[in-house]
Amino acid sequence: MRTSRRFATPVMVLLCVVLTWILSDYQLYNLTQVGALAIVVLGLNLLMGHLGSISAGHSALMGVGGYGTVLLTTRADVPGPFAIVLATLATCVAGLIVGLPALRIRGLSFALVTLGLAIVFPELVIHFSGLTGGANGLASAPVAVPFGLALTQVQWMYLVVAVSLAVVVFGFLLVASSAYGRGLDAVRVSEDLANSCGVSPGRAGVLTFGVSAALAGFGGGLYQLSLGTATPDTYSFSLSLSLVFASVIGGMRGAIGAIVGAAFIIYAPNYTASLGNHGPQLIYALLILAVVYGRRVIELLRARRGTVDLRVDTDVTPAEPARQATASAAQRS
Amino acid sequence: MFGTRISQRRAVGALVCLTAAMTSLTACRSSSSDSDSDSGGPIVVGVTVPQSGALASYGVIAKGIQAYFGSVNASGGISGHKVEVKVLDDGYQAAQSLNNVRKFVQQDHASLVVGFGAITSADRDYMQSAKVPLIAINGNADMNRSEKYSYIRTELSDQRIDVIADAKATSAAHPDAKVALLSINSDIADTLADGLTRGLSGGAKLTQKQLYPATATDLTAYVNKLKSTDVTDVFINAAAPTLAATMKYIHQIGWKVRVHVFQNNASIAAAMSLVGNAATGAISSFYFKDPADPRWASDADMEKYRDIVGKYAAGTDANNLFTLVGFTTAEAAADALGRSDGEGGTKFLDAWDKIDSTTMIGYLPGVRVAYDPIDGRLFHSEQIVEFDGKSWQPVGDLQTVPAIPSSGQ
Description:
The complex is a heterodimer of chains A (about 325) and B (about 400). Chain A is mainly alpha-helical. Chain A has helices spanning about 1-20, 25-50, 60-75, 80-100, 105-125, 130, 155-175, 180-190, 190-195, 200-225, 235-250, 255-270, 280-305, 310-315, 320-330; strands spanning about 140, 230. In chain A, helix 2 runs antiparallel to helix 10 (about 200-225). By secondary structure, chain B is α/β, with parallel strands linked by helices. Chain B has helices spanning about 5-35, 60-75, 95-105, 125-130, 160-175, 185-200, 220-225, 240-250, 270-275, 300-310, 320-340, 345-350, and strands at about 45-50, 85-90, 110-115, 135, 150-155, 180-185, 205-210, 235, 260, 285, 355, 370, 375-380, 380-385, 390-395, 400. Mean pLDDT of chain B is about 90; it is low at about 1-5 and about 25-40.
């Protein structure tokens, strides 16, 4: 078992690299989109899974990153990598500003603020059509493959996104297991508890929204470069819902779950259309129900067989993050 | 450090399985389509339309296309090739549409792709770079032919042509008409306003423009605002259910204004039948036959259309105008494919650009379907019609409106 654990990560890396030459451009394009969206979902996981705040506005933040990247590459001739970095910083600033209400409001009220952002963004893009290209969209500059590498544009984007995702996953795991991450868990469980541990819920909320926004901008920039043309429809409210959905079905606290969720929203439309007009909604609803109640149903089934004591299992989970947060705060003091 | 080792191992395992499953699924699909592209294999036509979401009702376009090519296949195909229609749902999302056209080109090796609505503008750059023809069912003036997008062709007229015909008739009948435009806030509003400005003459003028957001379905506030002005004619551009509700409201509040609508939204099945007598007097300009219009109940062409839809797309509503739009799109594409020996690319485009017919199924008597290089559109004939409560009745003769180039926007 220890040997297989040791080899799991190198095997994954090798698989990702080898796929570059095995898969067609279209298959790589799909995986690139999965990777870019997974970065956005990771940011959302930090916000929803760890801090406990819901954002319905991440499509707009992705849009700031996406449009920012396209505008910088096409209108200001900024090279792609620098454009993505600048667009990420701009999205982070936008996120910090949007996150300011988190100092005072929480929960659904905060979600409504972000919902407004998602609804307004496409309208703003259309309003400033001279800059953004309006409803017809704005084509991004072709991605150049550097150093004369014998790769297609799609292969290069796939590798860029794969490396970016690996870095973001590593950072996410690092943050989630740090004292800061446990502080976020404490805020999610109880703000009073967080305050007593020296964690300011408001400050943690604004900072986390800024980080989450930066990841949305970063993912949005990569997504946009692989997609080609930026349009207001690309960053509509329904994308926000899809991102929240991806976060939920993948498990809101994990890194791998973010990739699974992102893969679902990219691949599912190819298979759900045949189910009719409301097929996708039906599948989404069934999956959400499975995620929310699936574990409970399995536990009930196992309990009927006498293998699980439900009373013990349900009591332990909610208190665990609080215990870790308290321990972490004690260590810091 | 990162949680339990066992859960990490399981998660990595799950991810490996997921990647393998996804790629093998798509790999299976591509291997079958690779063989399809061999000589003697079918001609692949990709169709991306909304089959889910708010605009799912336009998904019947695909059924119309499948029905027509079904009949073509039944009579031997095109130049010895069967036509395989592949349909994907875009949910009217630009990103998904772009994803779909990539799949058609890169994986299915489609000879041409058909897309619907304003979101097709996002597909243009990719299709141009892939050098695969895209037929966009889109009346936005921005989709008119341009050198930049030489691989893009359109079904439907430039909507300025529709508006100009109606505006000219309005100016002639009511020289002092004060006209308002009530439209969704997108580039199509600019197209319609441009058409009105070009078409109105003498004392008739565009005096009001009310634009509502894409998410709005209740236009009563906009109607009330217009009612408080001296507007005599209102041109309403709204999806069929919203249009029906708005026309009903105008009737309910007793506003005596001449209502002008657009054929794309004002079919009898989708809109006018919902409004009933309150729709009487509505004005529009048509070039399609409305399949639900009693005028065409025993029309030979429309009977043939219904027969083909019934046989090759069983269960599809043949009365839906957009089933007919899909059907006529396939009709034009099949005509061009027949003359390009089933080839896509520039050979197909050259053949498309030579379309010139007055006998195609689905159009009003006398309508000429002919490619005009000025705007790259097939339709420039317009018939002013007025709704009598049951049927669209012609007013005056069929008109021909000259094409407007893309640079004229």
